[in-house]
Design brief:
The complex is a heterodimer of chains A (113) and B (112). Chain A is mostly beta strands and 113 residues long. Chain A is built from no helices and 11 strands. In chain A, strand 9 and strand 10 form a beta hairpin. In chain B, the strands form 2 sheets. In chain B, strands 2, 4, 5, 9, 10 and 11 form a 6-stranded mixed beta sheet that branches. A 5-stranded antiparallel beta sheet of chain B has the order 1-3-8-7-6, with no helix packed on it. The chains are: A mainly beta (113), B mainly beta (112).
Chain lengths: 113, 112
Amino acid sequence: DGGITQSPKYLFRKEGQNVTLSCEQNLNHDAMYWYRQDPGQGLRLIYYSQIVNDFQKGDIAEGYSVSREKKESFPLTVTSAQKNPTAFYLCASSPQGAGETQYFGPGTRLLVL
Amino acid sequence: KQEVTQIPAALSVPEGENLVLNCSFTDSAIYNLQWFRQDPGKGLTSLLLIQSSQREQTSGRLNASLDKSSGRSTLYIAASQPGDSATYLCAVRTGGYQKVTFGIGTKLQVIP
C-alpha cells in the first residue's frame, strides 16, 4: 500500500534531550513537509523540502532540524532549544508542483516528561 | 498575511441532514483551496482540492465551492451520516510550497 508512515505514534522527551520523529513515504513524491498542530491553532509549517538534499525553514523552524538524504525519508529532530515541544506533529508529502494535493501521515504526539 | 477562518467552530446535526461548512480567507490571490477531514488523534485526509480557476468540485456526497472574489469556500455534505463526524479543515495555498495557511477547523458531530 502506498502512503506515509510516521513513527513513533507517541514520544516522550526529557528535559534537555533531542528526539527524532520519523517520516517515510513510498508515494514517489518529491516534496515533503513537517507541520505542528496545537489546540485552537491551525497547522503551522516547521520545515519543507522540495527535493533530496534541499530543505527550507517554515514559519516556526526555531528549535527544530531536518535532513533529506533520501527521497523517501524526511526525519525531524526536536532539539533541546525548542522550549515548548508538546504538540501533535504531522508529516506530509506532495508531487512536484505547487498545485498538488498534500497527503498526510498519521502523526506523532510528543509529550514532555 | 493570509488568514483563514472557519465558521462554525463546532456543529451538531441529526443524521440525514444536509449541512454547510464555511471557510473564508483574506487574500484572494490564491493558487488553490483544499478541504481535509481529521479524525481525533489522526492525520489529515484530503477530501477535495479546488484550483483557483475552478468554481466547485464534487466527490460523492461532498461538494465544495470556491468564490475567490469574496474570499469564501463552502463544503456541502449531503445526507449526513454518523461516520461523517470529524473535524473538517480548509487550507489555502497562496504561493510556493511554504505558502499554505490552514484554518482551525469545524468539529462536526452527526447524531444517529
